[in-house]
Amino acid sequence: MTAKEVLARLKALGSDSIKKTLIKHGAREPLFGVKVEELKKLMKQLKNNQSLAIELYDTGNADAMYLAGLMADGSKMTRQQLQHWVQKAYWSNLSEYIVPWVTSESPLGFELALEWIDADKENIAASGWATLGSIVATKSDDDLDIPALKSLLQRIQKNIHTAPSRVKYAMNGYIIALGSYIPTLTDTATKTAQQIGPVTVNTGDTSSKVPAAVDYINKVKAAGKLGKKRKTAKC
């Protein structure tokens, strides 16, 4: 299937109501408004087609860009390609999910994430924090720089309340990831979240809420799932 054919399929799957919802959350034209479950079905037909994934992301179509991230194998992408993707990730579904999911699969993921969290651009900095969270969720603790990851909690505690909204959201997600996936840091992450207190994020005209980090970590702990890693960050 060519990129043109995929776009035609996406157009047929589009919904005006989904499109309106996505635009409320930050998406912009061009897009058709395709449900994620439909994108996942299409992804199963197109998986292992790396070149098509790269081409679809460059269409600029929000649905196609999300699909591209589901398809792409981040371990096969170059630094230049990953940098290009984060630069083009203009809204949260791309910058805080698709790009981090793909980047976390790359051997360059940790290095890039640390670069991105220092970015002046809100979406890129958010991508950095979300990428770190995805790495924590999927990599063995033996493969992680635990001291470096722990030290970032101090940075978050100091800066989260003055950070841009999407960076706040991603920082909060990072605390949750550390507390949920690295048992030796659960107490530290929980204490950090308690000291930070409620995190307020401007989510615009949407019903989106910021997960309470302490409550989230405690639920994971109560379920006996602390430290249970995921095979992939993609979902």
Kindly summarize this structure in a few lines.
The protein has 235 residues and is mainly alpha-helical. It has 13 helices and no strands.
Would you mind describing this structure in some detail?
The protein is mainly alpha-helical and 235 residues long. The protein has a domain at 107-235. The protein is built from 13 helices and no strands. Helix 7 crosses helix 9 (122-138). The chain is globular.
Number of helices: 13
Measured by DSSP, the beta-strand proportion falls in under 5%
Sheet of most strands: none
**Head-to-tail CA distance between termini:** 23 Å
Order of helices and strands: HHHHHHHHHHHHH
Query: In one word, what is the shape?
Result: globular
List low-pLDDT spans.
none
The overall pLDDT average reads 97
What's the count of strands? 0
Rg (C-alpha, Å): 18 Å
Q: Look at the helices and sheets and give the structural class.
A: mainly alpha
Fraction of helical residues: 55-70%
Search tags:
235 residues, mainly alpha, single chain, 0% strand, 13 helices, globular
Secondary-structure topology with pairs:
Layout: H1 3-13, H2 16-24, H3 36-46, H4 50-57, H5 62-71, H6 79-88, H7 92-103, H8 109-116, H9 122-138, H10 146-159, H11 165-181, H12 186-196, H13 213-222
